[in-house]
Every structure is written in C-alpha cells, then in structure tokens.
Amino acid sequence: YLNIEDGKIFVRKDLFFASDELRQWWIEERDRKLEIVAEGKDPGKPERSQCKEDCIYFKVCYG
Predict the structure, then answer these.
(1) What's the CA dihedral at 32, 25, 30, 35 to 10 degrees?
(2) Kind plus residue range of the DSSP H or E element containing 11
(3) Is the pTM of this model over 0.85?
C-alpha cells in the first residue's frame, strides 16, 4: 500500500503465500479479463444478487 504523508512516501507490504490452485485461478481470471479488453468483448452483466440497488447503472441493467 502506498501513502504520502507530509510529502514523504510510505510503502506498506501485505504478503501472503498463494497455493498453486489460487495462483492458477488468478492467472485464468487475468487472462479472461485481458481477452475481454483486447477483443472488445461484452463481459455481460453480473447476477442481480451481486449488484447493489444504489448502483448508478442498476436501472439500466435491471429496469
């Protein structure tokens, strides 16, 4: 994490070990998102239960 206080830069690290399974999942998610951006694909909308009703796009997506 990067913070600037009184003109000084402070860096705080939060390290944890990732299992091979977690690392593989992360790589696949990264690649999926890169493909969406690179090819201009429509990522679709999430399930209604994942959206907050105060989202500015809620009515656009779910009427």
Answers:
(1) -10
(2) strand 8-11
(3) no
